């Protein structure tokens, strides 16, 4: 179809440009990987200019992975991602189902209460005061309870349920199913694609969060992984890094930091190829809703 | 069904009549709307189900909003609760307007958000159009997969990557400079480099992912339009101008309005990681100021007041921009 010269030039130009953009998206990671595998000796020998290490060393990783704090924080991140997402999905689908019933008296007020929270938030300090008042400072549950309902996700699921063929819900009603049976047997299975997408985004959100943990938690034993990584990265020459980089060892502080970055990206990179299409579908769902 | 009928017995005669003898469809039959109370009774399981959801919103969303308004007019002291603290009228607002930091913080917030919007808006659109026009199916899919990856990294990781690139000792950029005989430069401690690095790294993280909404819009364009255009002799640029642009304009308008609406969210989480004392004058925004002043220096009332201010202006912006989004593109957030 596209045979003329201008078509060919156009194709070549866009391919080159896109490939350049993709390289700039990926190259920084490869550089970080290379750095994390470069030891002190090679660094000195090659005058600090190393992209691909000739003598890769895993010493930095060994040093990081013996830290008990890393493993503990990994467990906490898994906990908040799994429990946080599970409970969020439960409450969000219940809320979405209730608000999808058009004949429900007071539905508009309830809907307004939900939507208003997307538009107006109280800010950091008042939320902190509430968490404190509830005695949730230094509790991992704060990181779960704060995100128990996803207002935007609730709207997406609500519209998804409303767009299901009318007959399905009606049939359930005629068969005499209770509301809970309807929810569990009909709505949840049918809304599964929307639930999966929202659940995946919530997992990524929980996994990547560190700021809330920094605000609401003081005990380093409760820190999620991203906060531990953050502390390792920003501790330029502080004790945290120094204690890891023992004098005369083969590891540079830079390679330690870069290994930290790789440890932080690895879990995401491992699952990403399998889940990519669901994420994209999720955005389409949100985009269609608009 | 039976629960729906039971409470109606003897409640109000007007409702009980049409339902008689046919409890299953009570209220639906006879074309008459059942009374409000009756409908509430019918749906009481739904209300019960909604209680935990409502409780969440009241405790974690509306209680803080109430506190925000109360604390703004109080002098909150450490140790005593919000309601025991003394009222101070408009003192907090006065303190804010007299504070030496605030003008700089506000102008930084606006400048950084506008920069973000200006620099971050067009690149994803261009990339989406190029993806859309690429004639190679499989290569295109691979490239898309790769370019989405940084979106899934936390800001902590992005900061780590930036450090790997710009640090003095062994950052890639400095290594390149040194290799070509230039001096190494402390990019991360230079306030004139702070914003380019901040916005560049945000673009690096999101450029790929932001294409998806445009690609979704482009995927609905009828391929026959393009074929017809080719037959009529329209070259790639002409097709872009007459088919591609018009098809994504509504989405572009929509995204622009929404981004304007959330303008004041200058990305505090990212800045909190990237900034340091050396670049504070160019980096301090409302979010970071509120965090430092409120939680590090325990000036709860001042910080909460500034936060409230930000939320109120943010709300106004979102409402206005949503109005224009609806008007111009036919859809809004609500």
UniProtKB/TrEMBL annotation, chain A:
Q: Could you tell me the membrane topology recorded for this protein?
A: Multi-pass membrane protein
Membrane spanning residue stretches = 12-34, 78-99, 111-129, 141-161, 182-207, 258-275
Q: Which domain of life is it from?
A: Bacteria
Tell me if Mitochondrion is a UniProt keyword of this record.
no
Name listed for the protein in its UniProt record: Carbohydrate ABC transporter permease
> Subcellular location, in the record's words?
Cell membrane
| Domain ABC transmembrane type-1, first and last residues per copy | 74-275
Major subcellular site: membrane
Q: Which InterPro entries match?
A: MetI-like (IPR000515), MetI-like_sf (IPR035906)
Q: Tell me the PROSITE patterns matching this sequence.
A: ABC_TM1 (PS50928)
What are the entry keywords?
Answer: Cell membrane, Membrane, Transmembrane, Transmembrane helix, Transport
Automatic annotation (TrEMBL), chain B:
The ABC transmembrane type-1 domain covers which part of the protein?
A: 106-321
Query: Where located?
Result: Cell membrane
**Keyword Flavoprotein part of the UniProt annotation:** no
Q: How does it sit in the membrane?
A: Multi-pass membrane protein
Q: Membrane spanning segments where?
A: 46-72, 113-131, 152-173, 243-264, 300-325
Q: Which keywords does this Swiss-Prot/TrEMBL entry list?
A: Cell membrane, Membrane, Transmembrane, Transmembrane helix, Transport
**Matching PANTHER family:** BLL4140 PROTEIN
Q: Family, per the entry? A: Belongs to the binding-protein-dependent transport system permease family.
Q: What protein am I looking at?
A: ABC transporter permease subunit
Query: From what organism does this protein derive?
Result: Paenibacillus spongiae
